[in-house]
Amino acid sequence: MQHIGKASISFDNTPYIQEYASIVGKKEGEGPLGKYFDEINEDSLFGGDNWEDAESRLIESTISKLLSKANMSSTDIDYILSGDLLGQLIASSFGLVNFNIPLFGLYGACSTFGEAVSLGSVLVASGAANRVIASASSHFASAEKTFRFPLGYGNQRKFSATWTTTGCGSVIISKDTGKVKITGITTGKIVDYGLKDKENMGACMAPAAADTIYNNLCDFGRNPSDYDKIFTGDLGYIGQTILIDLLREKGIDISDVHSDCGIEIFDINLQDTHAGGSGCGCSASTFCSYIMKQFEAGKFKRILLVPTGALLSPTSSNEGNSVPGIAHGVVFEAV
User: Is 202 in a helix, a strand, or coil?
Assistant: First the structure.
């Protein structure tokens, strides 16, 4: 394991994705990626009593599915690294309590899956752990209740708004040879362009994504064409346009290889999600379904996944603060 360039780590003792699982809600299941998810739950409450309980049940079900697919039990896992969008990570805390696995609770907003995989890879590559679970989740209704307005309010959504994904994606990262290897990470820094519109997350997060992608290419000495795809997490259509323009200003054109999980997961013409998808569960569930399936089908040899997060809270937003962004990059390669 070696620190390279400005913000990256290259793994010599390569960690692997040993197994993956994803569970989503009804709307996500009706989208273009529906056939790739492990489960689609038609009940938006997931059998729970409220939206927060629903997200905890979503997390618990996804981790159970992951362990079942891997033919493992909780005792085979050294740590869980997980996060969500709710205050003090209550969705993860209540959803994971019964597994009895040491937990690192993480908050990187919608970039949390990239942060979890990055730190999980460091734990495994350093020898501090044999197997860890990296996970992230979000729920449309719990996120609306936390950051915007409860659904019963019936407010109008701006066309620049993204639709928070109801979904959870989880992976087992292991020192044992697996389905895909993790060869490097690029850790993002906080980037703040002074934007304050919480209904335009794509614009708030795009500068951070541009910074992380630029640092990744410089640190590893690569061109965009060295990746089959560069996936951002949650920029949507507006953020994608800004990202491409920002990198072109630096002399880098990623337009031929760029995709965004928030664009892939919903059908803009049929599902009325405005600017696309977002949320911790967006990049997590897209990676743990569609992207991993493409690796297994031999269609991807190397990708860069860059989940993107908007670092706001209800308090900071109500007090008139800007919305800084952050993005964490992970390099995945075929075995």
Answer: helix
What are the pLDDT digits (tens) for 267-299? 988 888 877 888 999 999 999 999 999 999 999
> What domains lie within the chain, and their CATH numbers?
2-174 (3.40.47.40), 180-334 (3.40.47.40)
For the beta carbon of residue 2, count every other beta carbon within 10 angstroms: 9
In the three-class reduction of DSSP (H, G, I as helix; E, B as strand; rest coil), residue 54 is classed as helix
16-25/308-310 β-pairing: unpaired
Strands (DSSP E) contained in 67-197 are 79-83, 103-105, 131-138, 163-164, 167-174, 180-186
283 versus 146: which is more confidently predicted? 283
Q: What are phi and psi of 128, to 5 degrees?
A: -75, -15
CB 288 within 8 A of CB 171: yes
Angle between helices 236-249 and 201-220 (to 10 degrees): 40
Please give the distance of CA 310 from its chain centroid, rounded to a whole number.
12
Question: Residue 199 CB: number of other CB atoms within 10 A?
Answer: 16
Considering only CA atoms, which of 12, 44, 48, 51 is closest in space to residue 29? 44
Residue 50, C-beta contacts closer than 8 angstroms, at least 6 positions apart: none
Q: pTM value?
A: 0.94
